[in-house]
Design goal:
Oligomer: single chain
Strand order of the largest sheet: 21-22-23-24-27-26-25
Number of helices: 21
Distance between the termini: 44 Å
Radius of gyration: 24 Å
């Protein structure tokens, strides 16, 4: 029996394990990427492993998140990343060169290769036919050092695309429809593989928009085949030599399958406060709009920007609307400047921001109180914009641009004929803002600012794990809840002791103080705990506060892996009703913890306050069990190398 595309790449890179869904495998990693929000910690961890030089085919460090330098902290982190990457063989994409996923797609992505990135939207590379996976910084550090990446062998879900998009309907509407069908939990444990006749009608940037937001499905990754469309894109980037044709075998099978009729789609929007809360723009109605933000790693390609410029040309942004636009890369921004499209945007009243993540991660441009903000981004979690009361809608660039003119949420089809923009036959390729590393053996000084603190390390798992339920939270708690990521806190990504003072404060402002007073304990969560960003700070801050285990109805993939890497037990209620019987400050204990873990996947947690017992499931491999015994991945590596 033949293999589907995901299976082919996994087989080619398989280091250990068998390709049986739900069992642990490890794969060889060809490329890595980091960004500055997660990168500082990743490189501190890489240094701690004592490896002189990266072992990957190419590793790139991007500066694209913490761009506002209102103090020394961000600049210090940037200098540290610049020098540590120079020393260890990593390419450095300087501030202003662009958003990591956009630049990686343009300049470095190679079909058929594996890419591991310390950012949850790394699957953007799947638009180019890569097996691109988001992970915690520690996993990326291990991969840079030549170590395999361990994961559970995913199921493969086929999304069969039929038909062709009508005018004004976009790739953003495709992924919003997939989210509507599957939900933010629908991709957990799966690779989403796109196939069918409709694939050929989508450009590589359109495919990348779709794979980018596959992260919101909770999927391991998403992937498109590499075909003549891929070849044309790489040729236009001056990289045709990187092209490899990749497609599933004709007789392959899939674990699940859904069909999306592209010709039946309409302009869609994800309503507050979840990417899967999707409805037709027409049905939502003409709500008043206060802010429009266009850009992010989802929708900042050259073609996206050109369509926006054509819509805005000769018009004026509504007086009640603030419009900000972030081109995705220096390449895009330069091409817009050269062909006059940038002038059209500015003349219409748009404010042009840096080629960076910016508003998407709450780094500037927070809306006013109770504002409606239309964004072409990938997440609209409550408070992520920096304004808790804001109502954020996720839409396509076309819907965003038209609505910026009208002042209300508007179906772009009302504007008449859709703008026609073709993919360029040649992009402006200039990598002068990518600094290659120093030759091996060169003596490079690594510069560390005073804000950079050592990352916390756990201790070996004790015989009895005892503590109180320090907080109880509901479903779909995001990493933004666990470790807020706003303009005030982002400069402190390399200072976990400081960050820990804000851990879970959006849910309970007293949590850090309570955790410190009780010398740690337990977190109790609902379904899909830890969805969203890959930031391992959402595990490191609880670790610093002494959290020993998280009891939840279910976990998001990356956060669960980060908890294990930190030596924190991720326990799933066998009976979800047990969640209701735990109250905050109940005394919990796991007796003979190591013995229970060795015995199987069922861990008994006793509630001493209520005199109850809960059976929980610990879904980990034998290797991960050893990590938990050691108190996390770093301790495990040190022990293995001792």
């Amino acid at each position: 029996m033949g293999l589907n595309l995901a299976q082919k790449i996994i087989k080619e890179h398989l280091v250990s394990g068998e390709m049986v869904p739900g069992t642990e495998i490890s794969i060889r990693i060809d490329q890595t990427l980091t960004q500055d929000s997660t990168g500082t910690m990743a490189y501190l961890q890489f240094e701690a492993m004592g490896i002189d030089r990266v072992k990957t085919k190419k590793s790139v460090a991007y500066i694209d998140h913490n761009m506002l330098q209102s103090g020394f902290e961000n600049a210090d982190d940037h200098k540290y990343i610049q020098t540590v990457t120079n020393k260890h063989g990593i390419y450095f994409s300087r501030p202003g060169n662009g958003i990591c996923h956009q630049v990686q797609l343009e300049r470095f992505g190679v079909p058929g290769m594996t890419l591991l990135g310390s950012d949850s939207h790394t699957p953007t590379g799947g638009g180019l036919g890569m097996l691109a996976i988001g992970a915690g910084g520690l996993d990326v550090a291990v991969a840079m050092g030549g170590g395999a990446y361990y994961l559970m062998m995913p199921k493969v879900l086929k999304v069969n695309l039929v038909g062709k998009l009508r005018p004004w309907v976009t790739a953003k509407d495709v992924i919003l429809e997939v989210l509507r069908k599957l939900s933010v939990k629908g991709g957990v444990g799966k690779v989403v593989e796109y196939a069918g006749e409709g694939v050929a009608s989508l450009t590589v940037p359109e495919r990348a928009t779709i794979t980018n937001m596959g992260a919101e499905l909770g999927a391991t990754t998403s992937i498109f085949p590499s075909d003549e469309t891929t070849r044309a894109f790489l040729k236009a980037q001056g990289r045709e030599q990187d092209f490899v044709e990749l497609k599933p075998d004709a007789d392959c099978t899939y674990d699940e399958e859904i069909t999306i009729d592209l010709s039946a789609l309409e302009p869609l929007a994800a309503k507050p406060h979840s990417p899967d809360n999707v409805e037709e723009v027409n049905n939502i109605g003409k709500i008043k709009v206060d802010q429009v933000a266009i850009g992010s790693c989802t929708n900042s390609s050259f073609v996206d920007m050109m369509k926006v410029a054509k819509i805005l040309k000769g018009k004026t942004v509504h007086p009640d609307v603030s419009l900000v636009i972030s081109p995705g890369s220096k390449q895009v921004l330069t091409m817009l400047a050269e062909n006059g499209a940038l002038a059209d945007m500015v003349a219409a009243g748009a404010r042009i921001l840096e080629s960076s993540c910016g508003p998407c991660i709450g780094m500037g441009q927070s809306p006013k109180t109770d504002a409606v903000s239309l964004r072409t981004f990938n997440r609209n979690f409550e408070g992520r914009s920096g304004t808790v009361s804001a109502q954020v809608y996720l839409v396509s660039p076309e819907t965003a641009a038209v609505s910026a003119i009208t002042g209300v949420l508007t179906d772009p089809r009302e504007l008449g004929e859709a703008p026609s923009v073709s993919m360029p036959s040649e992009f402006l390729a200039n990598d002068n803002m990518v600094t290659p590393p120093a030759p091996e053996g060169n003596d490079v000084e690594v510069v560390r600012g005073p804000n950079i603190k050592p990352f916390p390390l756990n201790t070996e798992l004790p015989e009895n794990v005892i503590g109180k339920a320090l907080i109880k939270v509901g479903d779909n708690i995001t990493t933004d809840h666990i470790m807020p990521s706003n303009a005030k806190l982002l400069p402190f990504r390399s200072n976990v002791p400081y960050l820990s003072e804000f851990c879970l404060t959006p849910c309970d402002p007293e949590f850090p103080k309570r955790a410190q007073e009780n010398k740690g304990g337990f977190i109790v969560g609902g379904s899909n705990y830890g969805q969203g960003s890959s930031r391992e700070h959402a595990a490191l801050a609880p670790l610093y506060l002494g959290i020993k285990a998280v009891l939840a109805k279910s976990f998001a993939r990356i956060h669960m892996a980060n908890l294990i890497n930190s030596g924190i037990l991720p326990l799933v209620f066998e009976n979800e009703a047990d969640y209701d019987t735990i109250d905050m400050m109940d005394e919990l204990t796991i007796a003979h913890a190591q013995e229970q873990i060795k015995a199987g996947d069922k861990i008994v947690v006793k509630n001493l306050t209520k005199n109850r017992e809960y059976v929980t499931i610990l879904t980990v491999s034998d290797r991960q069990k050893e990590m938990l015994y050691a108190g996390g991945l770093i301790n495990f590596i040190k022990k293995a190398n001792a």
